Amino acid sequence: NVAQLALSYAYGDGKAGSCEMAKQAVSNLLYGLPIHGYLALGISSIEQINNAVGGVKLEVLEDLTKYDKSLVKGATVTLTGAQAKTYLQSRMGVGDGTNESRILRQKQYMMALVNQAKTAIRSDISVVLDLYNAISEYMVTNLTLNQVTYLVTEMQGYSFSSNDMYSESGTSQQGAVFNEFYADDASLYETVLKVFYTCEDNS
User: Fold this and answer.
1) Using one digit for the tens of pLDDT, what is the confidence trace for 122-137?
2) Which whole-number Å values give the CA distances from 44 to 40, 53, 193, in the listed order?
3) Neighbour-count burial for 144-162, b at 16+ CB within 10 Å, e otherwise
4) Spatial separation of the C-alpha atoms in residues 145 and 179, rounded to whole Å
5) What pLDDT was estimated at residue 139?
6) At what angle do helices 145-155 and 127-135 cross, to 10 degrees?
7) What residues are paired with 182 via a beta bridge?
8) 132-153 average pLDDT score
9) Torsion of CA 20, 26, 28, 30, to 10 degrees
10) What is the maximum alpha-carbon separation in the chain?
11) What percent of the chain has pLDDT over 70?
């Protein structure tokens, strides 16, 4: 059967069972790529994460004054927790109203959040524990605190830019209820090879 990828989580128990189903669905989409860890967060965790790093500074990409008077297009703001949730979640009546424009805001926010978190952690490694505790009640994961701390510490040595976020080519079409996106198989296969595999020269 063909269904929206996100539904694999919705068909589960909302906890570890949902994460396992989503993990399997994503692995199937990516040609059987093994996925060893997962971390799922409820939407309410956005506010906690945002505030734990001292707010996230960015330039507002679209006019969201319908939801928050301070979110004027082009303005540079340091988002509070509630504003961050609005910025990431709002779509109806914003710009062209499509999910594509909302995804651009989400990618922008993720970049700003990562950079803000790296700066905060560089100054005080205990921020990792603060973040973990702040979101623990909203989180389902098979990663331990030690594993999370290790991964965050490793992250400090990596550069991360918008070039490291991939948007797959494909086709969109109107389904019975929702607009549906179908990834281009050849393009997706090339992306999987590029991101997750290395080629050895045996010549």
Assistant:
1) 888 888 888 888 889 9
2) 12, 16, 35
3) eeeebbeebeeeeeeeeee
4) 39
5) 93
6) 130
7) 171
8) 89
9) -150
10) 62
11) 97
